[in-house]
């Protein structure tokens, strides 16, 4: 799932490539992906793209006249920028992974795609991003707050620290992958309880959050959209590296699996050498 660094980089790429261009055609191939109906897709035609940004993990493409295309890429969505499209033939609904195609006046444009059968890509055309329910519920952007605010919000939601870090109503922008990386950098167990963390450990977690996300943004900015996934994978130390050696201490990276997700961690760096119980296997044993 694209998280804060990748969405920031996609917005940066659109600012570089698409800002100033006018929309020639807005095509919808997956009706389920478009969550709004007024204004409709035709409202974008002829409008100029004036900016691109993000709200947490939501991408925001801004058109003149206060119209916003707000996109949540979910688990399997992505944005593919095309310097030129292979055909002028309109998309056929229900065919292939392309959900939305935006053609621009210079022949370029972008596709919003989604792989797999579980369709969660969400696209909104609104006059105010706050009209998108997910945006309206967002907590503060995690890179925009100071240590006292971070501490207050972290301790204000009692729970396992990984779950609190990824709660978008607490902090906007952190997902499954970067929460694993942040906790590894902070040398914290993903199951540590937020309101039991001493001040020094919260401060270390805050610094790790800023370091991990800041470094990821720096690596991602300037990359083409097609290269961002590979760039993300290249910078990961524990996430999606189960069974590989930890690059810090050499211990084997372990995994805890849940019904529809998993987390990765290093026992030596994060849990005092203790291997955490795999929740999926524990349920089977019982």
UniProtKB/TrEMBL annotation:
Cofactor (UniProt): Zn(2+)
Residue stretches in coiled coil: none
Ranges for domain FPG-type: 237-271
Pfam families tied to this protein: Fapy_DNA_glyco, H2TH, zf-FPG_IleRS
Ranges of residues in domain Formamidopyrimidine-DNA glycosylase catalytic: 2-94
Keywords attached to this entry: DNA damage, DNA repair, DNA-binding, Glycosidase, Hydrolase, Lyase, Metal-binding, Multifunctional enzyme, Zinc, Zinc-finger
Catalytic activity: Hydrolysis of DNA containing ring-opened 7-methylguanine residues, releasing 2,6-diamino-4-hydroxy-5-(N-methyl)formamidopyrimidine
Molecular function per GO: 8-oxo-7,8-dihydroguanine DNA N-glycosylase activity; class I DNA-(apurinic or apyrimidinic site) endonuclease activity; damaged DNA binding; zinc ion binding
Gene Ontology BP annotations: base-excision repair
EC number in record: 3.2.2.23, 4.2.99.18
PANTHER family (alphabetical): FORMAMIDOPYRIMIDINE-DNA GLYCOSYLASE
Family recorded in the similarity comment: Belongs to the FPG family.
Protein's name according to its UniProt entry: Formamidopyrimidine-DNA glycosylase
Taxonomic source organism: Micromonospora polyrhachis
Highest classification ranks of the organism: Bacteria, Bacillati, Actinomycetota, Actinomycetes, Micromonosporales
